[in-house]
From TrEMBL:
Entry protein name: HAT C-terminal dimerisation domain-containing protein
HAT C-terminal dimerisation domain: residues covered: 118-191
Pfam families: Dimer_Tnp_hAT (PF05699)
GO MF: protein dimerization activity
Domain of life per record: Eukaryota
Amino acid sequence: MWDSMIEKVKIEIYKKEKRPTSQISCFYDVVHRSLVARWAKNNTPLHCLAHSLHLRYYGDAWLMEDSTRCATHRDGEISQERMKCFRRLFPNDDEYSRVLDEYAMFSMKNGPFEDLTSISKMATMEPKNWWVNFGAQTPFLQTLAFRLLGQPSSSSYAERNWSTYAFIHSLKRNKLTTSRAQDLVYIHNNLRLLSRIPKDNVKMWDVGGDAFDSMEDVGFLEVADLSLDESDFENDLIIDN
């Protein structure tokens, strides 16, 4: 997605502003910084390990789409972050050596992964199902694949749900029951989805989201860059009754 997303976003913004791409767009500069910050934030050792265990990034179809792509075990940055993750997850030297051997066999399609059925199914089978069928002889990698590939790729949806809940269950509405607040969040999100349906060839962009009473001093793009792991965000959203 990241290979072409920024360029596609740039084209849409310049088209909306009706200006050539050779000119400077202040709005695009802000959006570009936000996208780069999001990418840098998601580029963690755990993300690199999940990337290394996903079958798609070893297939010829994905590699041949762009000449700049390379298999995960040939990427220096991803390999470095993956090694950090292995060392942290397997502090025991024997287990660490074993998981390195398992990954070498997987990435090079050797040992239990050299079977033609195993190789052919990498391009068509859902990754977790593939690890169920062909990963039994590499138990460390199989366990990691089950845990990592079953996780959502982003926390943005969870963060948006927390944001909507904080907008509805504020200090001014602190007497709302839990069930009533949950119902209002459900209705609010569905109304937002309905508002995105084009009407008379006009489609509203839901860029701003909720007008948070509790986060008046935070801009919209700054909100998009926050995480539930950050104390400032958590303090604003968690309200003591």
